Amino acid sequence: MQRLAFFDLDDTLADRTLGFRTCIRSFCSDLGFAEDVEQWLLKVMYERAYRSDFERLRERFAVSAPVEELWQRYCGGMADAVTCTPAVLSGLERLRSAGWSVVVVTNGAGDIQRAKLARTGIDVRVDAVCISEEVGIRKPEVGIFREAARLMGADGLWGGWMVGDSAQNDVVGGRAAGLRTIWVSDGSDGVEADHVVSDAAGAIDLLLGLEGARA
Ligand SMILES: [Mg+2]
Q1: CB within 5 A of ion ligand 1: which residues?
Q2: pTM for this entry
Q3: Is the N or the C terminus of the chain less surrounded, counting Cβ atoms within 10 Å?
Q4: Do residues 135 and 105 lie in contact, with contact meaning Cβ atoms separated by under 8 Å?
């Protein structure tokens, strides 16, 4: 049986929250944007950023730079700012060596998620990447997990695991898809996951510890 391990990207495998603040600060400083623009971007793109956010930015603050230029600058800035720990990178390698098929399942725009995956080195340490914008389905919809399994040529999701920081998207969505779940969290808001760990490295260790035990 193929053992599937699905991982969320933002604030699970990679630290988006910290990187986002750093990126927006540099972005606004480089372009000479005022504090009100910075605060607006921090609020509007806190969860997720899309090209359309920069269309709104141009209209709201009469910015003349083209949307594509703003978006590409932001994508590059985020890719530079987001980090993944050596423990997670080596852990992904260990998982694959142990026979797990590892897939990133993430909501977001394809180009920025792929830029982050490449810059952190996650992309060469996983078997496949399933991004909502590219497949037209978002977590927590069950279809995105099925699509991730299909990318691996798996018959279904039986015996698979989902690891992520979002109670709704990763845990509730993963369970609805029939996956077992590991919630990367302080565990404080009462969602029922199979396991709760404080970071992705802990989730990887847990999966590796299931080795031979058929979970
Ligand atoms: Mg996340």
Answers
A1: 8, 10-11, 165-166
A2: 0.92
A3: N
A4: no
The distance from CA 14 to its chain's CA centroid, rounded to whole angstroms, is 7
* Torsion angle, alpha carbons of 107, 139, 47, 185, to 10: -110
Profile the chain (215 residues) by mean pLDDT over runs of 10 residues.
92 94 96 96 94 96 96 95 97 97 96 96 98 97 97 89 97 97 84 94 96 50
Domain with residues 3-15+83-209, CATH architecture: 3-Layer(aba) Sandwich (3.40)
- In the chain, where the domains are located: 3-15+83-209, 16-81
Question: What is the C-alpha separation between 123 and 117, in angstroms, rounded?
Answer: 5
| CA–centroid distance, residue 13 to ligand 1 (Å) | 8
How far is the centre of ligand 1, averaged over its atoms, from the C-alpha of 64 (Å)?
32
Distance 182 CA to ligand 1 centre (A): 12
| Span from the CA of 103 to the centroid of ligand 1 (angstroms) | 14
